[in-house]
Amino acid sequence: MADAPTTLRELLRSDLPRLYAFAFNMCGNRDEALAALRTLVVDAKAQETKVMGAAKPADELLGLLARGLEESLGRKSEYTFEGLDEVLRSDITRPIDLSSGGALGNDPVKLHVMLWELKRTCLTATLCCLPPGVRVSFVLTDLLGYGPVEAAELLGIKESAYRVRLTRARKRVEDYLTPRCTHVDNQNPCTCTGRLLIAIEANFVREPPHRGDIPHEPHDADGPRRDMGSLYRSLPMVQLVDAELASLLA
Question: I need a surface site. Which of 40, 140, 187, 200 has the fewest CB within 10 A?
């Protein structure tokens, strides 16, 4: 078992990858997640004594990031459920034909990468349709595994208020995805293969900056998942590249 970090730099080095994934789920894109970590590093340095003196410094750091994001993102959500439908479901399904070249460049590896990226982008955008204060409850509990008591403590709110947020988050995500997404029910109409070209043309999904967090298995290999928490936990966690981590620690 590795020794616990004894300095703020050690703590940041070990926890920034996890915090990056948390920020990505809150912000919906990599650039904003990275910007949130830059702010966190500044805030953590200003509160170094408090962070390192906490019973669980890693949780203190996560709480600092979660509260900061909830405040900076405000009460409104960047996406809307109606807006997602307009982007992804306003056009007919387009079959993928690699022989025609186009956006996928006749490249089966790129197709594999883009299908994974669409799945991750679409499900994360669905989360980002929720108000930030509601969204954070789903991310903390259903993705990171924090119970309502400890998650409420991280956010500095009452447990009862947190449970209301969590119930609302789960219901709204389930209500949206259950009749639409093939990853919930393979009889549903919205499939990644059918919507990929539409999503690329709409600039909704872009090729990721690296392929280190793209699994080797097909994006639909594990079949449908009706439990929303299980579905989101099955997504590959976005990863910081070494240069980004070094820049944050500099």
Answer: 187
